[in-house]
Specification:
The chain has 183 residues and is an alpha/beta fold. The chain contains four helices and 13 strands. Helices cover 23% and strands 43% of the residues.
């Protein structure tokens, strides 16, 4: 009987490999979207330890935050159930708060979340917003914002385009400030 089970297991694994199914297809990834009605004069303050941040200004009266959560592949393979649990917890309680006219996106608070999860943000803001963005490990891109922009990354590239007064910081070889006319 043991031989039959082993043979069946080998056949199933072979079929999965032949059809292109691998553990990478099981990537623990989740997403959420949050909309915050705020209007002109918004301040959007983002601190993201792991992941890219893209901020776009538009003629809108709310801040829309779209996030893609990824779990470290090694941790995911070791314990896929816990990886899924981390994603669920972040989706239920994202690190976002509103303080007056300031939308604050902070680092994750739980140690396991900080250690194993990364979040890529795409944020749509009212054009006249003030934007402050820092990523420790990821790229930062800001465009179409006419308010003040402060953008930085410890290890990633910083790109600012079609924006008002700008302050960028990070490794000198990685910074690109692109000033283009809005047209």
């Amino acid at each position: 009987m043991r031989y039959d089970f082993r043979t069946l297991l080998i056949k199933v694994a072979t079929i999965l490999v032949l059809f292109g199914f691998s553990t990478s297809a099981l990537a623990a990834v989740g997403s959420f979207e949050k909309r915050i009605a705020i209007g002109e004069g918004a301040i959007v303050d983002v601190t993201n330890p792991k992941g890219d941040v893209v901020v776009r200004g538009a003629d809108v009266d709310e801040v829309t935050i779209r996030a893609r959560i990824s779990i470290n592949k090694r941790y995911e393979r070791t314990d896929p159930q816990k990886a899924g649990k981390i994603i669920g917890e972040i989706k239920r309680s994202p690190p976002i708060e509103l303080v007056g006219k300031r939308v604050v996106i902070t680092k994750l608070t739980k140690h396991t979340h900080q250690r194993y999860a990364s979040i890529n943000y795409e944020i749509l803001v009212p054009r006249k917003s003030t934007v402050i963005v820092h990523s420790e490990s990821g790229d930062v891109r800001v465009s179409g914002v006419s308010g003040e922009v402060k953008a930085s990354s410890d290890t990633g590239e910083v790109t600012v385009a079609n924006s008002g007064s700008t302050k960028e910081s990070g490794p000198l070889k990685r910074i690109r400030a692109v000033e283009e006319s809005i047209g």
